[in-house]
Amino acid sequence: MMMKYNINPDIKKAETLPASFYKDAETLELLKDKVFLSSWQWIGDENQVPLSQSVHPFVLLDGYLTEPMVLTKNKADEISCLSNVCTHRGNLVALNSGKSKKLNCFYHGRRFNLKGEFEHMPEFEQTEDFPRPCDNLHKFPLKKWGPFLFAGLSPSFDFQQVIDKMNERIGFLPFDDFTFDASISQDYLVNANWALYCDNYLEGFHVPFVHPDLNAVLDYGSYTTEVYEYCNLQIGYTDEAVEVFDLPEGHIDYGKNVGAYYYWVFPNMMFNFYPWGLSINIVKPIDMNRTKVAFLAYVLDPTKLNQGASQDIDKVQREDEFVVEQVQKGVRSSFYKAGRFSPTQEKGVHHFHTLLSRFLNA
Ligand code: FES
Ligand SMILES: [Fe+2]
User: Using CA positions, which residue lies closest to atom 3 of ligand 1?
Assistant: First the structure.
């Protein structure tokens, strides 16, 4: 039987998602359709197709959605995000990244242009009513935010409203100068349900308990969470002695010492802006008890790295991993059912649970 999840919109009255949410296989399966396919996913940056007439195949959320997709850039430098599945008999079309004028399926020679439009197929002269629009490669809605790309699968909302919201505070940053740094980017395997990882991210409540070093630079008392429709923001204020943003006059936080802006975007993306640049966490479910967290660093000012609120990100990551893995063991207990929220400290978690239940019930 399908589980029903309802979160009271009043955080003072609400209970958290029940333990069953984190251990029900049917729910994880249902989330594919109801949450992940109904929203937007990070698909990397535009440097994956640096040249005109190039392609970059990839698998979205490999092991979970496992959706074969391909990013293309045509002669006019238009970027498209397409299904990488041939509309003939389902072969994968692009196999390698690099220069390519067309998308040629090597199985029986069907050819598409770099916008995914069907162009040619041998031995199909007698096929009636061919080609039809569905013989083109499926094209995904694509949104660009600076150099970053997001694809909608069958999105139920416009990603522009998320971008606009984030730009209110960090739109002043020179996005095109963000440089990907592979040396400090890595994947972490976490032995816990993906949603537990997000729950933990969405509150600063645990910082004094779990991250003593980070707590020493953050001003816990003024840590705030703002909730928007499909994203939310945690602001880490800090004292003047450590690196803070040089905010332009007229900025909503002008005059305050902001050490970090932590944006979470439904359902599984985190954008952490620091004075040195941006760290992105993409939380990728593998199965009920395992999650891969891709940690990607984009540097703006390397001289500010490893200072203030961004010091020793790896240590903070390990501390989070440890606690989330303990919670994973806890929610599997027969005696833990659900918890309650702190109205002052857990607005972000409540927001996440509300969205999950709303999307699951839609
Ligand atoms: S599967 Fe692509 S041409 Fe047959
Ligand atoms: Fe943490």
Answer: 108
Tens-binned pLDDT, residue by residue, of the chain (362 aa): 567 899 999 999 999 999 999 999 999 999 999 999 999 999 999 999 999 999 999 999 999 999 999 999 999 999 999 999 999 999 999 999 999 999 999 999 999 999 999 999 999 999 999 999 999 999 999 999 999 999 999 999 999 999 999 999 999 999 999 999 998 899 999 999 999 999 999 999 999 999 998 888 888 778 899 999 999 999 999 876 678 999 999 999 999 999 999 999 999 999 999 999 999 999 999 999 999 999 999 999 988 887 666 667 788 999 999 999 999 999 999 999 999 999 999 999 999 999 999 999 99
d(CA 290, CA 287): 5
Give me the domains of the chain, ranges plus CATH numbers: 44-152 (2.102.10.10), 160-361 (3.90.380.10)
Give me Rg for the CA atoms of the chain.
Answer: 22
Q: What is the 316 CA–ligand 2 centroid distance (Å)? A: 6
Nearest ligand to residue 260 Cα: 2
Q: Does the pTM exceed 0.90?
A: yes
H-only helix segments in the chain? 25-31, 160-170, 194-201, 207-210, 212-217, 313-331, 347-361
State how far the Cα of 84 lies from the Cα of 228, in Å rounded to an integer.
Answer: 34
- The Cα–Cα gap between 206 and 353 comes to 18
Identify the residue whose C-alpha is closest to ligand 1 atom 1: 89
Pocket of ligand 1 from Cβ distances under 6 Å: 86, 88-89, 91, 105, 107-110
Best probe residue, ligand 1, of 82, 83, 91 (max atoms within 8 Å of C-beta) = 91
Atom of ligand 1 nearest to the CA of 90: 1
